[in-house]
Amino acid sequence: MVKLYGFSSSTCTRLVALVCKEKNIPYELIQVNLAKGEHKRPAFTANQPFGQVPYIDDEGFILYESRAIARYLIKKHPNEGTPLIPSDPKAEALFEQAASIEAFNFTAFVAPIVAEKVFNPRRGLQPNEERVKELLASLQPKLDAYDLILSKQKYLAGDFVTLADLAHLPYGTAFYGAGFAEMFESRPHLARWWKDISNRPAWLAVKDGA
């Protein structure tokens, strides 16, 4: 069984758990207490030198970085659960294109907004509203492009769901719940896609904790 070392509510830990659910891969969550700094202790950094969650131990194979873990698990279990990464060269290229869209046109803006509006208040810090305003202004045209893409196809890489779609869920859900739902709902094709992926049973199973 895959051992997932992480914090149950962390965005990246939930992405890995989501993939496990989609692929029907059994996993054991080994809780890492971030509040106590367990992710910075030598026992943890021996396997994850950056001191970040999560990492996995798959029968002695250690791997960190949630996107790398997700790809590894999907490719190791190609015939189980939802495919998530296509094998056809052209379809895989479209998947990689969509994965880049997620990383550089969505998460690059949404993650720092979530950090300001959700994570900082939890630590007793005030959000930098000027930075949030700038990030939102940059995000608006990106979401317009999403709406255009999704007016022509069901998902970002075509008509089948892939990891590129699901990778939006951890940060996207926090963003949506932090008072920015209208940015999705005001764009009909984006709203349709978000409703689809955010109601997948695998996500609902890990949404509130891996």
In short:
It is built from nine helices and four strands.
Into which percentage range does the β-strand content fall? 5-15%
**Order of strands across the biggest sheet?**
2-1-3-4
Helix and strand content put the structural class at alpha+beta
Number of separate helices: 9
| Span between termini | 15 Å
The helix-strand sequence is EHEHEEHHHHHHH
Task: Spell out the blueprint of helices and strands.
Blueprint: E1 2-6, H1 11-23, E2 27-31, H2 42-45, E3 55-58, E4 61-64, H3 66-76, H4 89-122, H5 129-150, H6 163-166, H7 169-185, H8 188-198, H9 201-206
Textual characterization of the structure:
By secondary structure, the protein is an alpha+beta fold. It contains 9 helices and 4 strands, in the order E-H-E-H-E-E-H-H-H-H-H-H-H. Helix 4 runs antiparallel to helix 5 (129-150), helix 4 packs across helix 7 (169-185) and helix 7 (169-185) runs antiparallel to helix 8.
